[in-house]
């Protein structure tokens, strides 16, 4: 009875819920514990739902990721398998927001980065960026 009462109370507070089952891109780093401090950026891309879109995205990012490895900022890259499909998440780590800006600007100065981005832009329906600060209990500090 207590659990049922809790569920009813919780449902009044819940505005929306969304679940996804994600798989990791094989070319991306595996997320490993990090010593901090860091801020994290979760970039979410909703791609056009067309056959071959995810393969084309993956092929371009398999080449592009090498331009973003110098500062070890690439944490993980994932794509949806269950839930809303054609959704990609990239997780990046930075010392702070200033470091984020400097690292992203440095990528644009590397020959080849712009070309990879150019080929992925037409695949995107929408995108979102979230800055996250890890809890003390998180292995990603």
Automatic annotation (TrEMBL):
Pfam families, per database record: NIPSNAP (PF07978)
Gene Ontology BP annotations: mitophagy
Domain NIPSNAP stretches: 40-139
One GO cellular component term: mitochondrion
Family (UniProt): Belongs to the NipSnap family.
Name by which UniProt lists this protein: NIPS1 protein
Species in which this protein is naturally found: Crypturellus undulatus
């Amino acid at each position: 009875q207590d659990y049922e009462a809790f569920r009813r109370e919780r449902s009044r507070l819940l505005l929306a819920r969304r679940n996804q089952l994600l798989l990791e891109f094989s070319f991306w780093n595996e997320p490993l514990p990090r010593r901090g401090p860091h801020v994290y950026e979760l970039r979410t891309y909703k791609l056009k739902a067309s056959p071959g879109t995810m393969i084309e995205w993956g092929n371009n990012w398999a080449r592009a990721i090498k331009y973003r490895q110098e500062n070890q900022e690439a944490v993980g890259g994932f794509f949806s398998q269950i839930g809303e499909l054609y959704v990609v998440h990239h997780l990046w780590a930075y010392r702070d927001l200033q470091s984020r800006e400097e690292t992203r600007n440095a990528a644009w100065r590397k020959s080849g980065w712009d070309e990879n981005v150019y080929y992925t832009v037409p695949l995107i329906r929408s995108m979102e960026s979230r800055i996250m600060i890890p809890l003390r209990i998180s292995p990603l500090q």
